[in-house]
Amino acid sequence: MSSTLTSPTLRFVSPPPGLAPLTDFVLDEIDGAAGLYSLQAFAQPTTRLFVLDAAIFLPSYTPVISNEQSAALSLTTPDDALVLVVVNPDERTTVNLMAPIVVNARTGTCAQLILDDQDWPLHAELGAGKN
Beta-strand (E) ranges in the chain? Predict the structure, then answer.
């Protein structure tokens, strides 16, 4: 599930966990690092997350998005979806595979989805074998 965004402006259908009341963000690619982005809040520019394009960095990552989740984002085909994972930089860099940010690449509408009943880790070490 990967697609090219038509605009770097993203609007969450509800605030990402821990970032309420923020819903409007801009997605900027980090120079020299294809598929690595800064997701920055419009209303609070100092609030930002780093995210990775899962299709580039985690090609075996195949989260299942429910029909209800797809409908909330107006996704009509898997190709409409851009799947981003939040990066947790620390002593070792991990990514959150349990709660990806799924973006409708045509509209910029997105949501951070909790993948219930799926066996994806909250802190998967980046580059550590299979993901």
Answer: 9-12, 24-29, 36-41, 48-53, 81-88, 94-104, 109-112, 124-125
